[in-house]
Amino acid sequence: MYDHLEIRCPKLGGEVTFAYCQREGGDLPCPRILACWQRHFAVETYLRRKLTQTDWDRCFNRPSKDKVSTLIELIEAAKKRRGLAD
Amino acid sequence: MDQVKVFLDESEIPKQWYNILADMPTPMSPPLHPGTGQPVGPDDLAPVFPMNLIEQEVSTDRWIDIPEEVLEKYLLWRPTPLYRARNFEKLLDAPVKIYYKNEGVSPPGSHKPNTAVAQAYYNKAFGVKRLSTETGAGQWGSALSMACQMFGLECRVFMVRVSYEQKPYRRLMMMTWGANCIPSPSDKTEAGRKILAEDPDSPGSLGIAISEAIEDAVMDETARYSLGSVLNHVLLHQTVNGLECQKQLEKIGVYPDVVMGCAGGGSNFAGLCLPFVRDKIHGKDISLVAAEPKSCPTMTRGPFCYDFGDTVQTTPLLAMHSLGHDFVPAPIHAGGLRYHGMAPIISHLVKEQIVEARAYDQLETFDAGVKWARTEGFISAPETNHAIAAVVEEAKRAKEEGKEKVILFNWSGHGLVDLAAYDAFLSGKLTKYELPDEEIQRSLKLIEALPKP
After folding, report:
1. Complex prediction ipTM
2. Are A38 and B32 an interchain contact pair (Cβ–Cβ within 8 Å)?
3. Phi, psi angle pair for B271, to nearest 5°
4. 3-state SS of chain A: helix, strand, coil percent to 5?
5. Distance in Å, alpha carbon of A52 to nearest chain B alpha carbon
6. pLDDT digit string (tens) for B186-232?
């Protein structure tokens, strides 16, 4: 019903469909999906019907991280992978 | 004839960048290592950044010399002209003088190379052979591709697949500048292969692309990673723009009442505004406004409203249900709604109420952008349109208050590679979707059970 609707994604800097926003996080929607779409239609209602409470919490109730923390986590993860590769 | 542009001679280009950390009225909290809880140290960042940039990241020196090699490259398009938007002023019919810095004259068409060139230089000086980065629609990727070519570095850009397939022009710019542009997720990294194994048709995401770019840098001793926004050293490099602008305004004896810019990650806004923040900290009466995408409906119609009441490092934030007239259930947890991408320096300035954040709806921004193009001629990047929408609003306020104002803003880039966005707007694809009444009723029913504050 809504999948074809388009919006400009503030993260990518390009147009995306609602279908993309729903799978931006792999098996989860983009955490910004409520913020971006709620003025266009009742996106929360729609997603509460689609997502389990666990997935809802995984998507929207995670503690926030700043960019440097995210970078450090990615560096540590990559170092581990390098260790395995070595 | 009235003057439209103010130029600086090449010899007048600023020779130093300005570091706001030397003048912050209150200290910023250091980023903490998520594993140890201790402040992040240089060694934590060393796998992905060269030490000369890490030193800049933590420096509190007020002025940092711009290397001669960087200045030489800057001179290809800098100093950028300061314009007076006389035609737009006429359209707005308000007691305002509008000035804008044209950062769209750089080869990739945006402010991004101000830091891309500096980062490529410092990596080269550190002995790095290759830079890796991620890009969404390609603005940053194209700037870094050009910069790497200038300093003889290899460049690998992980471009989110959905953009890679839909937006060929920036990809082609990157390739023309010699970069290796790879759709993400890719088979080049473990992170990408894992995603592809689970979902071969994955359209990718910025998060995946960042993971790939970081892994790519960590796995290769001769490679490092480069980020185009958010970090302190990125904002530092961008200040060349605001410092130029101060010299240009001084030449014509003008000082702004309001300085505005769009703020995604914060680098273009910071570039123009930080030298003026310094003035404000030292007593100047000036408003500094960061314009960002609105994610919030009107109180009367939509189910949420977002507040700027956040106390930590981000901007828009608490979501409150607002469906119905007096029905305002408790805010949902804001964690997943926080925007992680804003520069800590800008977030800190917002928190300290030195910078004001305003949000604009995308339709409002495109409307402003189209009016701008039809008066001033230049077609703006869609992000830049947020700043223009802020200017429109500020002009309206000046008219209502009957107050003369000088407005300065950063025209951060042209939109000639973003015409698909204008197509979406002009063809009505971005038009607001009106919520059917039955859907509103369903929404109201669904949240009836939630607690009221």
Report:
1. 0.94
2. no
3. -55, -45
4. 55, 10, 35
5. 15
6. 999 999 999 999 999 999 999 999 999 999 999 999 999 999 999 99
